[in-house]
Amino acid sequence: MSRDEGFAEYITEDILGHISGITRKVLFSGYGIYLDKKIVGIIIDGTFYTKADKKLMTKYQEEGSEPFQYERPDGKIVTMPYVSVPLDVLEDREKIYERIYEAYELKKK
What we know:
Layout: H1 5-15, E1 22-27, E2 30-35, E3 38-44, E4 47-51, H2 54-62, E5 67-71, E6 77-84, H3 87-90, H4 93-106
């Protein structure tokens, strides 16, 4: 896994720049994306993922998104509560706004 500052800047400034309160921080081998200091997404290996519970994971997988997974040293595949954001959503200000705020609302539960 590698960190791509240019892609992180593109996501936080070009794609999410219209959403007040968005910031990014280095997180392990990628970046955490925050809305008002609450994590709503991650960027890992050139892919942007938003936080998702089981309901959102199912909804977005049906729309073609993939869960964030990684392989542990023992070979076990671990699925984290994040789902990829497809290009059509990245390019639609209303859809990406909805995705970010759905992820934000999860932190309130």
